[in-house]
Amino acid sequence: MTEVVAKTNLLDLDREGMERFFAETLGEKRFRAHQVMKWIYHQHVTDFAQMTDVGKALRAKLEAHAEIRPPSVQFDKPSADGTHKWLLGMDSGNAIETVFIPDKGRGTLCVSSQVGCGLNCQFCSTATQGFNRNLSTAEIIGQVWVASKHLGNKTHLHRKLTNVVMMGMGEPLLNFDNVVRAMNLMRDDLGFGLANKRVTLSTAGLVPMIDRLGEESDVSLAVSLHAPNDELRTQLVPLNKKYPIAELMAACVRYLQRRKKGESITFEYTLMKGVNDTPEIARQLARLMKQFCNQVQYSEAGKVNLIPFNPFPGTRFERSDEATIRAFQKILLDAGVLTMVRRTRGDDIDAACGQLKGQVMDRTRRQAEFKRKLEEKGVSDAA
Ligand code: SAH
Fold it and tell me: Of 110, 252, 293, 353, which is the active-site residue?
């Protein structure tokens, strides 16, 4: 009987992993690994036969032991404002979403890290889908690969994809190893060659993992804050019960202390009408930010990114009024806190923050519970 050996998907390996695979499995030198990486990430080639500077013997070995298998595109959809969304099939029944957002001089790709999410933030559509599993390294970097190929992106030459934010579906710090490996490929010259600060990981606030990220990687950090006091934050982000604001902010201080001076953390703050958008709460947030900047000893250490809430079927929250958003921003600006309002893009294709859903075979039964609640409220279209 012939033994069937599973082929290694090369998209699962960062540079170190590729070098090891070439040495240990193929008995080849590292520069061969580098050549193949360039074909994959700079030329978007998945067929070893097209790698013209790779000799026949090595191509045969690669055919036998390896494959280059990006996620399959189930459909892709352009938005009127230039935003583009892909639904990528993962395995039977599961699919995740990736969104490209072009803006003056830059192109940002919003990448998912898990199929669904287990954190249950009350105002996020992904949460209603429940959780299925972590994405592999190949499935994470594969999202960048698919978008880069579609856009005709040329690493180092003609860059259309300039930034990646890990702000799609899932909590990236709960899939630490695969996310870090994929972020290595995003920043590697043999990969997509993005600068460190152009790759941003966004977290709901897993304190121990923020520390680990600070030790092991070198990317920008964004933290989903959404409330300046524990009582309110625990209601919105249940994870706050485990890691309250004081511990979260202390981890953020430690993160910046490990980085070069002049770097900052972005605090995301989704504005929901009558929930977290009052002047009093804005003042509390301003105090929290000032305190943070003082601790880091850098006046621009914390930036606030206000995100007007994006509604989805069945949600009990509403977007704050424009005047309230402006007033909230003004209080922060007047207190000397750098504050931006993130303008919603791609909402005609449900591609805005918190609207990514994909298709999740839920293992938490949260989806069933959410559908039941919707039915109680008389909302029929839960899909
Ligand atoms: N789990 C990570 C990555 C998700 S990032 C995190 O929590 O940071 C997505 C960002 O959009 C987060 O800041 C999230 O809190 C915010 N968000 C979620 N639902 C939203 C909604 N309906 N409207 C606006 N922003 C939302």
Answer: 353
